[in-house]
Amino acid sequence: MNLAGGPLAIKLPWQQQQWQRVDDLFQHNKLPHALLLAGPAGVGKQRFALALAQYLMCESPQQGMACGQCRQCGFNLAGTHPDLKWVTPEEKSKHIKIDQVRALVESLGQTAQQAGYKICILLPAETMNINSANALLKSLEEPAANTLLLLLTDAPSQLLPTIRSRCQRIDFPLPSKQQSLDWLSTHVPAQTPVEALLHESANRPLAALALLENEGMERLQQWSQDYLALIAGQLSALSLAEKWLEYDLGEVLTWLSRKLSRVIAGHVAGAIDVDENWQQLTASVNPQSLFNLLDAVNELVDKLNRGANPNRQLALEALLLESCDKLRS
Q1: Looking at the 3D structure of the chain, how many domains does it have?
Q2: Which of 4, 79, 104, 200 is the most exposed place for a label (fewest CB within 10 A)?
Q3: 54 to each of 7, 33, 117, 152, 235, how far by Cα in Å?
Q4: What is the pTM of this model?
């Protein structure tokens, strides 16, 4: 979502329960100073946070949403509201830095320019390092009046316990498949293979929508073909590692982790939505080998999320060689 303005954000159909919970707190003057919005990527946490901020700042909310007509909504529509701050990793950085958090803490301590709420949306919250997180604790422990911190995270376990314990947590699970299909069908062109989109995005509707941009589906299909060719002995690990260098390592690994997770689920539970070519590939593979390979992929993903900066080609080569070792019959 564009952080700099645009149409008013609207809560998504599968977020009714979460919205009602927060609105009840607000209506009874029990809204805490910090909410932790936790759940998988692509389910709409950012949209929820923005819709909530616009609602709380609105002068004349209607039917539990921002009116879109008042002065405060005008600021938000233009992306210029002086009391709504975004804190995200700076360009070319994967982390929220301590200087960013210090600047945020200072701004939250000042009087609101519009005499209402001062709100900060911080995401992904897990990208704060220990110094950044400790700098934020001051605002969490001694919050100024009429301030709200919205911390968004795909990985709440990676946050410091001291941060988690000072926020009221709101969980955002995956919507049902039918909810996702119904919503997605109204947001894509006719004849779009919505089930395929949803399948590739692991039932994350906003992630599915993003696949339509920048040839996302084509990219995932190419990765699948490449990996299957590797395991079939038609492509070497060294060649594939070099080919995949043009992509974001985190995206490739996350895709592979989801693919392997679905294959494992198919082994364990039977009727799981798994690509036929992948089913054939792993039909005779020891399930323990699949688990071990998935662990290796997830371990590398965790290292990247925690700020590691490995040699990308060597990391890919090692993982692809291990894939050959575990999956080739």
Answers
A1: 2
A2: 4
A3: 11, 16, 10, 16, 51
A4: 0.87
